[in-house]
Amino acid sequence: MNNWEGGIRAAALVAGGALPEPVLGTKVEGMIHLSDWYGTFCFLAGIDPFDKRAARSLPHALPPVESVNVWQVLSGQNMTSPRTDFAITPLGEDTNRPGEDAARHGGDAAYMAEGRYKLIVGYIRQAGWCGQIHPNTTSPWNAFDDIQNCTTLGSEGKIGCLYDVLNDPSERQDLAATMPSKALEIFHKLQIASRLWFNPERGAIAPEGCIPPQETGFWQPFLP
């Protein structure tokens, strides 16, 4: 996976008797984050999305729920989504690592702003395009070998790679050099989001987790 649109953009289907008849069979273009389904389902069920138990989980209290209720968009009451910004991946140690080490790690961070602009920072793998049917036999291609320099240390002096994903969903035109103030503005948002990112210590990697899928063909919970 990666932070290109091909790695994070997905389609969703909504059905059921709660949908007003005029919106049946229609398409919604508004931005919806994966986390927004939680707030939306809570609204439909008449439940407060605030997590009281999580708020009491000291000393590592969980941050407040950031899910946005998007029912008005899904039901056709409002064509403008309340979701405009969200952090995709926080800044990490790999985003500005120079040289071959960075290419090997391929770390990247990203932030979506104003419902259209996406800033990507780091050495980004899979920086290429393929046909509608892939893989095919036209020529061999290892997408992980295609790496784009979107760091803040680029030779052009620009900050990351900036794309207007509404007008350029294939991310072919980097706007960071022509819109430096916008790139800097979103980069500051990414810096703030990275500082607030909730990422507790999750323990050591447990190779035992690979045994069940090897034996059964299915990923499943396990006890180390």
UniProtKB/TrEMBL annotation:
InterPro entries: Alkaline_phosphatase_core_sf, ARSB. Keywords: Calcium, Glycoprotein, Metal-binding. One of its GO terms (molecular function) is sulfuric ester hydrolase activity. It comes from the Eukaryota. This is Sulfatase N-terminal domain-containing protein. The lineage of its organism: Eukaryota, Sar, Rhizaria, Cercozoa, Chlorarachniophyceae.
